[in-house]
C-alpha cells in the first residue's frame, strides 16, 4: 500500500474536514493535485476532497460543526469548507452527462471509479484517506506518476474533446511533472495534433492562464518544442519563435536566476498583440514591453540598470544574450549595481527661467550628456 506522510496529511485541520464527512457515514478522500504533489515531494497548493455526500449535506455538516461553508461552485457540486483558516474544496463525485469542449453537464455519482474516469490525466486520478493511504481506482495513476508519464485517462481524443483546454494542460503538466528525457506521450501528441482547431473555442483568459503557468516551470523549453511539433504554439501564439528559449533557461540556471513567466514569454520574441492574446494584466504587458525594448536597444548594462532598476536590467541582459546568441557582457553584475545607484543631478528648478517644452528639451539634452559621460558629469559640469 502506497502511503503519503508529512505535509498536509498530518495537518489536523485538513484531516478534520475529511473525518467530518466519513464520521457522518459518507466516503471522502483527498484527491488530485494535493495527492500527486505529496507523492512527488513537490509543494502542495490547493487541498481538494472528493466525496459521495451531496453538496447540501456537506454544507449542513460543516455548519453544524462550526466550520465556514461557502457554495463556491455548488451548481457543479463544489463547496469550500474553511477550518481554522485552511480552505478545502469539497466536490461530490460526478460523471459527465454532456460536454461541448468547454463546459460539462454533470450528474452526481455514487461510484468512485466513475468520478476518477472523468478527470484528465491518470496522475490526477489518485485519492488518499485521512491516514495517507493512496487509492488508484483506475489502476494506472501510480505507475504513470512514478514514471513521470503524463497520460490522458483512457482515450486521449475523447478527453480532449470534453475540454480543449486539456491540450494546454497536457504540455503544462509535462513541463512540471513529466520525464523530459522520455518526452511526451506519443498517443497524446497524435490526438492533440489532430484536434488543435478546438483551441479556437477557448477564452483568451483560460489560454493566458495556462501559458503563463507553463512558462513558469523549471524548464518549459522541451514542452514548448513539443507544442511546435504538434501545431499548438502556432494556434495560441502565431508569431512565437521558441528557438531562444532553451538558451534563456540555461542562462537563468547558470546565473542563479529564478524562473519567471513574463521573461520566458519575452524569450519567444516580439509577438503582435500578445497582451490581448493572453489577456495579460497592464503590469505584465508593461514589463514585457520594457524587456523587449531593452533587449532591442544598445544600452550598456549600467544604463539599463539606471533606467529600469537592477532586476529588470538583469532580465533584459539575459534576454538579449539569448535572442542574439551572444555572451553576457563582462562585469555585468558590477555594472548593474553601479547603474542602479545613479541619480540625475539636475532638477527643473536648476534651469530657471526655462519653462514648458523648452525646459523639457533642455533637461533631456543634459540627461543624454550625463548618461554618455558614464554618469560622471556633475551638476556644476552640466550647468556650465
Question: Can you characterise this structure?
Answer:
It is elongated, with a radius of gyration of 26 Å. Among the domains are: 1-146, Beta Polymerase, domain 2 (2-Layer Sandwich), CATH 3.30.460; 345-383. The protein is built from 20 helices and 9 strands. A 7-stranded mixed β-sheet has the order 3-4-5-2-1-8-9. It has helices spanning 12-22, 33-40, 55-64, 112-117, 141-146, 156-162, 165-177, 186-194, 204-215, 221-230, 233-236, 245-254, 261-266, 274-277, 282-296, 301-308, 310-324, 332-340, 356-372, 379-383, and strands spanning 28-31, 47-51, 68-73, 78-83, 86-92, 94-99, 104-108, 127-128, 134-135. The protein is 48% helix and 11% strand. Strand 8 and strand 9 form a beta hairpin. With 384 residues, the chain is an alpha+beta fold. The mean pLDDT is 94.
Amino acid at each position: 500500500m502506497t502511503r503519503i506522510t508529512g505535509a498536509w496529511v498530518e495537518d489536523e485541520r485538513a484531516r478534520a474536514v475529511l473525518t467530518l464527512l466519513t464520521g457522518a457515514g459518507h466516503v471522502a478522500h483527498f484527491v488530485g493535485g494535493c495527492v500527486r504533489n505529496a507523492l512527488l515531494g513537490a509543494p502542495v497548493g490547493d487541498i481538494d476532497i472528493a466525496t459521495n455526500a451531496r453538496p447540501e449535506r456537506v454544507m449542513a455538516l460543516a455548519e453544524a460543526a462550526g466550520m465556514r461553508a461557502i457554495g463556491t461552485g455548488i451548481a457543479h457540486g463544489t463547496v469550500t469548507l474553511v477550518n481554522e483558516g485552511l480552505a478545502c474544496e469539497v466536490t461530490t463525485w460526478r460523471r459527465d452527462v454532456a460536454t461541448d469542449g468547454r463546459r460539462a453537464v454533470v450528474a452526481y455519482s455514487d461510484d468512485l471509479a466513475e468520478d476518477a474516469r472523468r478527470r484528465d490525466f491518470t496522475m490526477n486520478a489518485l485519492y488518499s484517506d485521512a491516514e495517507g493511504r493512496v487509492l488508484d481506482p483506475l489502476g494506472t495513476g501510480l505507475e504513470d506518476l512514478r514514471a513521470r508519464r503524463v497520460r490522458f485517462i483512457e482515450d486521449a481524443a475523447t478527453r480532449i474533446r470534453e475540454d480543449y483546454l486539456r491540450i494546454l494542460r497536457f504540455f503544462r503538466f509535462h513541463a512540471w511533472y513529466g520525464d523530459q528525457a522520455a518526452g511526451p506521450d506519443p498517443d497524446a501528441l497524435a490526438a492533440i495534433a489532430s484536434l488543435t482547431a478546438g483551441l479556437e473555442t477557448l477564452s483568451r483568459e483560460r489560454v493566458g492562464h495556462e501559458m503563463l503557468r507553463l512558462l513558469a516551470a523549471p524548464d518549459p523549453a522541451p514542452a514548448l518544442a513539443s507544442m511546435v511539433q504538434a501545431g499548438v504554439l502556432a494556434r495560441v501564439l502565431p508569431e512565437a519563435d521558441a528557438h531562444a528559449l532553451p538558451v534563456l533557461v540555461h542562462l537563468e540556471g547558470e546565473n542563479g536566476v529564478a524562473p519567471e513567466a513574463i521573461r520566458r514569454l519575452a524569450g519567444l520574441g516580439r509577438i503582435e498583440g500578445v497582451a490581448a492574446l493572453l489577456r495579460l494584466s497592464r503590469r505584465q504587458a508593461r514589463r514585457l514591453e520594457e524587456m523587449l525594448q531593452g533587449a532591442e536597444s544598445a544600452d550598456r548594462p549600467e544604463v539599463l540598470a539606471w533606467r529600469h532598476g537592477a532586476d529588470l536590467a538583469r532580465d533584459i541582459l539575459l534576454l538579449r544574450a539569448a535572442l542574439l546568441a551572444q555572451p553576457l557582457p563582462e562585469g555585468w553584475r558590477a555594472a548593474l549595481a553601479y547603474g542602479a545607484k545613479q541619480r540625475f543631478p539636475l532638477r527643473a528648478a536648476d534651469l530657471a527661467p526655462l519653462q514648458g517644452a523648452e525646459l523639457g528639451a533642455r533637461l533631456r539634452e543634459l540627461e543624454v550628456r550625463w548618461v554618455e559621460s558614464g554618469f560622471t558629469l556633475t551638476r556644476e559640469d552640466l550647468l556650465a
